[in-house]
Specification:
Oligomer: single chain
CATH class of the largest domain: Alpha Beta
Largest sheet: 8 strands, mixed
CATH topology of the largest domain: Rossmann fold
Number of domains: 2
Strand order of the largest sheet: 13-12-9-14-17-18-19-20
Number of helices: 14
Length: 389
């Protein structure tokens, strides 16, 4: 993806070096434009180093505003009140504002990342809404200490890739995920023993997070149901907390009827204490607990919404490939899952919380995905979903 990164005169310009390097790390080509005020905050050489390309600070006979106006994305980060307001009224008096107007005329997707004092942000809210109505994407700032601060680098990258994919879908390029309502559960639920103690599992939520990122980038309308997890969920996601089996069940019952795809990565507790103590159990004597099995939530999904595309996960420990496939097929028969992602958490590199995995995709065919990062596994899962829906 070819990106033009426009840096304007906010102190958040200091963050753009990290942003440019992260975009490059993910394989994108980045060309920077800098305003005169931005050059007073960071030197253009810093962005030249980060992007590997010369920085545009003046328009020359090479007509840079035309030459770079039809890239995949124009990313204005940080975007000041001045740059937002000028573009809202199509004022072209510097290289960045001139590039923006030219790009808009070519229907190039544009993303703004506001960063300024909160009173300024409030003051330009009408211009922000005007630009949103014109189809411009805004990444919500992080409101803190009376300022509309630069959001997390990860959020900006996710929103940028999403904007490009949605634009391609709008222009007719096939994208089966664009606009689809995707529900993803992640993490591990717990059941209470007493007001302090719980029984849970080792699920970290990492696989669910990577699937959520992939769904979001592809343009899905994403909702994340988050049980207990060890990963950071981007602020740009719509996240609903559901840490217990009952809370997870209630939210799924509410959300499943309107969802197109449900990916059940959460490790739901299989057992719950028969009796939950109302006060803390004393640790001064021996304790034994009786548990009851908890009904499988996934087995009711198709009863709620028969048309939903249901993806189940099947985590087993130290079993053969054939056994794993048979268990996945059993889940398909019992729950009506359309696709099962099966893996053995006993294998090296596939443990709970690891950054890698090795899975088998089971549907009407069997596909082995060798050991890879969970981000790559997520891409493979969504490629398969797009092939099936």
């Amino acid at each position: 993806m070819d990106i033009v990164l426009c840096v304007t005169g906010s102190i958040a310009a200091t963050e753009t070096i990290k942003l440019a390097r992260e975009l490059k790390r993910q394989g994108h080509v980045v060309k920077a434009f800098m305003s005169e005020e931005a050059c007073k905050i960071i030197h253009p050489n810093a962005l030249e180093f980060a992007t590997g390309q010369s920085v545009v600070i003046d328009l020359t006979g090479q007509i840079e505003h035309v030459r770079y106006s039809q890239v995949d994305l124009i990313l204005v980060a940080p975007a000041t009140a001045n740059s937002i307001s000028k573009f809202a009224y199509r004022i072209a008096d510097n290289p960045i504002s001139t590039l923006l107007i030219t790009a808009y005329g070519h229907d190039t997707p544009i993303v703004f990342v506001p960063s300024m004092h909160d009173s300024m942000y409030d003051a330009v809210s009408e211009n922000v809404e005007k630009l949103k109505a014109d189809g411009i994407t805004f990444v919500n700032p992080r409101m803190d200490e009376g300022k509309a601060k630069f959001p997390a680098i990860e959020d900006i990258v996710l929103e940028s890739v999403r904007a490009v994919n949605l634009d391609k879908a709008r222009k007719g390029e096939e994208n089966k995920l664009a606009g689809k309502k995707v529900l993803i559960s992640l993490g591990g639920t717990y059941e209470e023993i007493d007001p302090i103690r719980i029984i849970s599992n080792k699920s970290s939520g990492r696989m669910g997070l990577e699937l959520a990122k992939e769904a979001f980038k592809r343009g899905a309308e994403l909702t994340v149901l988050a049980a207990k997890h060890d990963v950071h969920l981007p602020k740009t996601f719509n996240v609903i907390e559901a840490e217990s089996n009952n809370l997870m069940r209630e939210e799924i019952d509410l959300l499943t009827p309107s969802s197109d795809i449900f990916i059940a990565t959460a490790a739901i507790s299989d057992f719950a204490p028969i009796t939950r103590e109302e006060s803390k159990i004393s640790s001064s004597f021996d304790l034994s607990l009786d548990f009851k099995p908890v009904g499988k939530i996934i087995q009711n999904i198709k009863n709620i919404n028969p048309d939903i595309f249901l993806v189940g996960f099947k985590a087993e420990y130290d079993i053969s490939r054939d056994e794993m496939i048979n268990l996945a097929k059993t889940q398909m028969r019992d729950a009506g899952t359309d696709l099962v992602v099966a893996n053995d958490v006993g294998r090296k590199g596939c443990e709970f919380g690891s950054s890698t995995n090795e899975v088998i995709l089971v549907s009407d065919e069997i596909k082995d995905i060798p050991l890879n990062t969970k981000a790559e596994i997520a891409r493979a899962v969504f490629d398969e979903i797009e092939n099936k829906i």
